[in-house]
Write a structure and sequence with these properties.
By secondary structure, this protein is mainly α. Helices cover 69% and strands 0% of the residues. The protein is built from seven helices and no strands.
């Protein structure tokens, strides 16, 4: 078996306290966010993906803030909000009032949000690591 960097990180994580898979998967998501902070935030395809997913999840957004990527996040979320405003202005569909209470309508209208790019990186790492084991 070829000893990849994932294998080496997993082997080291086995000597640490806690879940080895979770530790390596979280490190993988952190490396993605670090790369996004310095290089990927200007990539056109990555920016388009962020528009599609409506940004990062709550946890990864704040992780980026703690990493010092506030300016990059501001630029990315400006694109996301501008895109959302364009979609709302271009929408000709008039919402039809539904019966039921306000909370019922809110929860029925809530859509499944696409997965955050960093969460997807973590999930893909988990799948690779489980297959490696």
């Amino acid at each position: 078996m070829q000893k990849t960097s994932d294998y080496q990180r997993l082997l080291y994580a086995c000597t640490q306290e806690g879940c080895s898979l979770c530790r390596v998967a979280q490190e993988n998501a952190h490396r993605y966010l670090d790369a996004w902070q310095y290089d990927l935030f200007t990539d056109v395809e990555i920016r388009e993906e962020l528009r599609r997913t409506q940004g990062f999840c709550h946890d990864h957004t704040w992780q980026l803030v703690r990493m010092g990527a506030s300016l990059q996040l501001a630029q990315a979320y400006r694109d996301i909000l501008s895109d959302a405003v364009e979609q709302l202005q271009g929408s000709t569909e008039v919402p039809v009032p539904q019966s039921g209470g306000l909370f019922k309508r809110f929860f029925e209208a809530k859509r499944e949000r696409p997965q955050c790019p960093a969460c997807r990186q973590r999930e893909q790492a988990e799948i690779r690591l489980v297959n490696m084991l």
